[in-house]
């Protein structure tokens, strides 16, 4: 009988394997059920190859609340390479503002029409319906600490914003941030869910609540 040649799992191993698959199914079931918040930070894992480092929950909340305050009632907010702030804004479902996410990582396309593919190398390659100066505030976190990346991202920011800018980037970029966007450093220090080697800071060009 050919079946005799097939290795048999012990009852203990088989039970453990079944338990593993059951837990896996339950996790996937949670993600697809209404009880799972697809907007919670960490629902899409960081991809370090894309230079992704999510903010801590406290920092994302603080930046999201600042964006809502700055945008005003019925305001429009653009999250440029800042998905964890977008996710935190979406947790405030029902509040009187609208938000979109401009992001290179196409995994965020699960958020539907609010997702806009964005590559900082082509700063003005944007959809036609994304009108110039149509956002009350742009919150941006350029993926790389280089002047080239900041300069190109700045083109997009200046195209999108009506005026207000909230920039998160390294402390070493202070001079370039002032040069390209006219923003000044805040007292508030953003934190990430994982400690980074580079010190990060926030920069604004308006009277913010981050002082």
* Straight-line N-to-C gap: 78 Å
Q: How many runs of DSSP E, i.e. beta strands?
A: 7
Largest sheet: 7 strands, mixed
- Overall mean pLDDT score? 83
Q: Which range does the strand content fall in?
A: 15-25%
Going across the major beta sheet, what is the strand order? 3-2-1-4-5-7-6
Shape category: globular
Helix content: 25-40%
Unreliable stretches covering 5 or more consecutive residues: 28-37, 39-44, 46-51
- Please tally the helical runs, counting DSSP H or I stretches of 4 or more residues: 5
CATH architectural name: 3-Layer(aba) Sandwich
**SSE series:** HHEHEEEHEHEE
GO biological process, one term: methylation
GO molecular function, one term: protein-lysine N-methyltransferase activity
GO cellular component, one term: cytoplasm
Protein name: EFMT1 methyltransferase
